[in-house]
Amino acid sequence: MAQKSLRKSQLVEFKNTAAGHEGVLSDLSGSLIIKPCKPSEITFYESTKAHPEFSRFIPEFVGTLSLEDKDPAQAAAELIESLETNGISDPIVVDNAWTPSNGGKIMTDYAIAMGNVAHGYNKPNILDVKLGARLWADDAPPAKRAKLDKVAGETTSKILGFRVAGMRTWQGPHGAGKVGVNEDGYKFYDKDYGRALTTETVIEGFEEYFRVEKGKKPSRNMKKVIRRFIEDLKDLQAILETEESRMYSASLLFVYEGDPDALHAAFVTEAEILETLAARKDDKNNLTDGNSHTHVTPKSPNSGIASRACSVTLDGGDTAIDGGDADTEDDEEHPNLPKIQALKLIDFAHAKWTPGQGPDENMLHGIRNVIASLKALVE
Fold first, then answer.
1. 168 Cβ partners below 8 Å, 6+ apart?
2. β-pairing, 32-37 with 251-257?
């Protein structure tokens, strides 16, 4: 795994969320986020090392932080010093490092540090889809069960096994100033928007996210993005069908490049990289038998193919890309492709492995219906 070197800096409020998670912080580069959580979520993240296929579909786990009377600047310095020394090949535990803000809904002495899935995009469009018809874990008290069952019954969760929890989409270079659009040109859709969608209108939520005009089909590039999400979802479905787990109130996190020009440029660059790699492989094959032809297909960030090179932040703030000691053959197997889209599972406060209990059909039901919804957009 490539090592990441970050500048020492203060943690700042992280605003790049879709479903209104409060109390989340990030470093100034935006590549690292720190989220308040319960010990159970930390335990689950640590356990995913034994499930490598599943781990492809969760954010990069960096480490944990625990409560102490220290200000965020000192906490950030301690965390980043550990990152600079140890890299991120193994989880890092920084004791006595962080005091969470009182603004978050989660009252906890712990936080988890993870890679920011949306980092590296020009204008990331983000969607949070809450999974499951049942949203409460076995240890939930009766009052909480009743409350969550009521939410599920009043939304698409009960029938479809998922609901739109929130999203943010870039409205274009001239979007700022329009109704509901902030100064950065983003429009936010909160939990109330998702709860108002029905089984008949939930497709409209996906149309909003993928910037599809009502009554029309997605653009060519957007169809490609949606189809990649469908393939990722199918891969995730296949993995979960082989795992025995229960993950209540977990979410699917969708991210794609929301700037149409940047998206088009990313597809062009990706095609050029893959064409170059295919030509190199053809040249090697021709040296051996003269009859081989190679076709290299793009891989999503969840495919297990590394999608980034080693990133080193210089004193002046510039970022240098360093391939290290890897030779050309390794570069061909692990190409550094541009950011187009990514799919991750998040929110594991009520997740655990359950040997002997079979796959999590509560979650799988939702994933299958998300796949069906996306297929309806492109077919």
1. 16, 17, 18, 125, 126, 186, 187, 188, 189
2. unpaired
Token pair for 228: 């990649």
Q: What does the pLDDT average to over 361-378?
A: 98
Q: Are β-strands 32-37 and 25-26 bridged in parallel, bridged antiparallel, or unpaired?
A: antiparallel
Which residue type occupies 248? Y
Strands 310-313 and 4-5, bridge-based pairing: parallel
DSSP state of 19: S
- CA 206, 207, 212, 216 dihedral sign is positive
What does the alpha-carbon distance between residue 242 and residue 26 come to, in Å, rounded to a whole number?
Answer: 34
pLDDT of 326-347, one tens digit each? 455 555 667 789 999 999 999 9
Whether residue 195 contacts residue 151, with contact meaning beta carbons closer than 8 Å, is answered with yes
Instruction: Find the largest Cα–Cα distance for the chain.
Output: 71
Question: Which is nearest to 118 in space by CA: 26, 187, 207?
Answer: 26
Q: What is d(CA 179, CA 169) in angstroms, rounded to the nearest whole number?
A: 14
pTM value is: 0.79
Ramachandran area for residue 225 (φ above 0: left; ψ -120 to 50: alpha; else beta): alpha
